[in-house]
């Protein structure tokens, strides 16, 4: 049996239903009771960025062999526990990189050129009352990237096409790039106009965007977050935006999804998206195929396609 943690993709759900005995965790009223009765028949868990496999779930599934995540991010999976118990873990890298990087650039353009506000202006019939106010140029702005992995590199490549000077922060300097390296996030934030969070969420990167970093970015700076909500101290971000201490923000992720801070709803220098970085038909289908391919490989004793543990 396969335990799917929450609704994520209808094609994936249908295929899991065809190929396995599928348990839908979100439809189960008494989860404790369910786990007691079925724990011996569940050999795989399918999770995503909302719900994965924490220590408690792993402990309650003695026959669990693999956690196949419908996400590249692994922050909802207790990787140490999986290692300890010999449980395999897979994710969906590469197939979503382009979409997430495209969306990051889209957010930069949307915030600086006020695309959403422009659209509201036309729809409200305000165009007849006069021209839209002037906005801010994107080409040539310096872009600072936190985490120069697959997604960070794809964003850098795109921003280079807009003549943006690129700098980055990561734990260590990368040998294979000429982008300027800052060993401190605050220094990176002080030296760029647009700061993008692209790293994975770990205890070390939680609240990597704090008040000091926001103040270093400053009243003309723009924060883009396509990583995870908890990368940002959201209360600090909200007060900085409300008080005008930060120039703007483009956010695809939030600390308490599906909640987004209502204090931001009235701000035109902020663009808020419902965690749609990988949300295209093409990419979500490719992610589903990777989840299915990893499960199939595991149960056929073949090498996993995208193993993490
Ligand atoms: C989500 C993501 O998994 O890949 C990730 O880490 O955050 C997304 O692709 C998406 O919400 C799928 O359910």
UniProtKB/TrEMBL annotation:
It comes from the Eukaryota. Residues 105-277 form the D-isomer specific 2-hydroxyacid dehydrogenase NAD-binding domain. Signal peptide: none annotated. CDD domains: HPPR. The keyword Cell membrane does not apply. Residues 8-308 form the D-isomer specific 2-hydroxyacid dehydrogenase catalytic domain. Keywords: NAD, Oxidoreductase. InterPro entries: D-isomer_2-hydroxyacid_DH, D-isomer_2_OHA_DH_cat_dom, D-isomer_DH_CS1, D-isomer_DH_NAD-bd, NAD(P)-bd_dom_sf. Transmembrane segments: none annotated. Belongs to the D-isomer specific 2-hydroxyacid dehydrogenase family. This is Glyoxylate/hydroxypyruvate/pyruvate reductase 2KGR-like isoform X2. It comes from Coffea arabica (Arabian coffee).
